[in-house]
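Protein modeling request. Please complete all fields; requests missing the sequence field cannot be processed.
Requester role: graduate student
Desired output: 3D structure, token encoding
Chains: 1
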Amino acid sequence: MNKSTILVTGAAGFVGSHLCDFLVEKGLDVCGTYWKGDTFDNIEHLRNSVNFVECDITDKQRIEELIKKIKPEYIFHMAAQSYVVPSWQDPEETLLTNFMGTFYLLEAIRKAGIKPKIIIACSSSEYGLTEENEIPINEKKEFRPSSPYTVSKIGTDMIAYLYQKAYKMKIIRIRFFNIIGSRKKRDACADFAKGIAEIKKNKIEKLRIGNLNGIRDFTDIKDAIEAMWLLKDKGDFNEVYNVCSGKRYIVKEILDKLISLSKKEIKLQQDPQKNRIMDDPIFLGDSAKIKKLSRNIQNSLDTIL
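Delivered output (305 residues):
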């Protein structure tokens, strides 16, 4: 590939930074965007390996200039306001970033007259409120939004669908379920681990908790990256794919496990601010579609070999 043919938006974030690590390890040339408010904590080690460019995803003109300049062959669109609670506090900013930001990116690509392969990070939150008889959740389940963040990701998903259909763009939409790993912040697993560590260092006295009864589907960041890498060339542009483990984890069980690893007594304190206005009690994904794709690829390789 030529220089800067892979564009990663939101490169300073949790998923974006791990994706940059993965691409650099493969010896590829990467251009990564970051927002002016981002820190370089996740990507400091990549300063000499990735071409980092400041670019607010809501800056239409800046995005158009960037796309025209680098003409990427692959685009991984990871830039987003990715938290539920802040979306209630500032829904406008969430909608602008997630929906309009994606729209500006796709418009820039269309205007540039290029045909890159595009991976767009959507979210399992789009499925929203789910009944037990709808578990595990497959890609055909209807959307029942439970937060402004959810609405913004439905918009992201649907504008990508529209541009794929209307302009024949090579877009793969991925609905990620809960992804965990190093550098993750402001989710239950990360908050639990951080809080326990701070209690051990006597920085805080109690671990603040919210609802512990939720059921979630967690996927390691490395597996999520591998899924994107598989789908970028092998995925069907007419399809959307769940990326999930298909395994149930009760939030309280995760907390109990982390506490068991600590030698210090961990006191808990309920924090109403950690409770969502609307919560999705069960989130368990169906990964049958992507697993079938992976099996078909493996069977084809076995036949060739």
